[in-house]
Amino acid sequence: MSTNYETLAKKIVQRAQKKGAKEAEAFLQVGRSADVRVRDGEIEDLTQATSKGVGIRVFVKNRVGFVWTSDFDNGALDTLIDRAIALAEMSAPNPLNGLPDRKDLGKFPDVGELFDKRVADLPPDWKIKAAIEMEKVVRAFDPRIKTMDSVGAGEAVSEVYLASSAGVHGSYEGTSVYLYASPVATDGTQLQTSYWYDAKRFFEDLDTPENVAKKAAARAVRLLGAKKVKSQKVPVIFDPTMAAGFVANITRAMNGDAVFKKSSFLANKLGQKIAPAHVTIVDDGLRSRGLATSPFDGEGVPTRKTSLVENGVLKAFLYDAFTARKAKTRTTGNAARGYQSLPAIGVNNLVLEAGSRSPEEIIREVPNGLYVTAMLGHGANTVTGEYSRGANGLWIENGELTRPVQEVTVAGALTDMLQNIDAVGSDLHFYGSTGAPTIRFKELTVSGE
To answer: What is the pLDDT of residue 124?
Structure first.
């Protein structure tokens, strides 16, 4: 990491204050990334990119101005700071504007290593070899896999620097590396496309190209011959990837700004039991090697682990500094941003904590139901609490996965769905920065024929 960038961020803040800003902040990012896609053993697309930029936020008489640039020339930065102050002077005043309160600032937590030198030093051809290997494995898995929608690999390296007039200054660097495969299978009458990917901060934690390819291929092939089922109310099981999506949907309703505006179905439920005791959801900014782990948020507030739902009880909502002031509470260290944007409420590593039951046991207890492996659309309305999404998966008969199912809709009210989670698996799996195990709903409406 470059100490010059940290020094630059501090100097920007000092210049802004000298030019009349009551408070100022500089958020600087530097990064590089590379991605490759292959088709038929040849490179289809190879992308390499570098980026750097700084976002400058100033406050003048309760007014905020924000600008950003990728030009670090001293003259250009001076001009930009002047523009930020001019924008602030023209904006509407709001007494809630300002940097985080000093009581919310302090020592950054030790989040462990986020940077893997092996990822940063990966040879340029590793992506090509990994992607070609995945394509070969997928095609050899089953003759019914005729083509690939996409298959590829990549890595990224990033650095973040922050300084503010509140006395905050810090930096961290991180890496990420990933593999993905999306095969298309056909039995002559229908096509089935599926997908699998893995992403980690450290190369040693990444799944092998062979495993990623086999998982993707198996998920596509097992859906061949899929048909609708009759409309009925039955137990429904979400595999870990679908459960992770459900958790992400639920957490959108825990956005403090949405709650303040009464545009969340959870707005009046803080402290209430919204799920069974075996349901615990956390926003964990401290998780070891998590893709969304960092020592501080986009405003320099130390990150933390926040229990959102603890043993079924709704414990907290998520806030940045501005929305916390609106709600007369304190930030949870969830300001998310890039250098081109103002801070807004985001999430860190979201986790539905694992239970003690195996997924096989959870399936075995279902005499008749649906095991969901893919969903379509964005049918979760976190304002009204309505949930309705297209689904594909496998039908369960007498505790066993049997025939493939497609073109059905799974529907319910989110409040009821939470209360009806009657089993949580032990198979915690992360899909990006969101982790969840298998979950079972006691009963949902499955609409088909």
So the answer is: 85
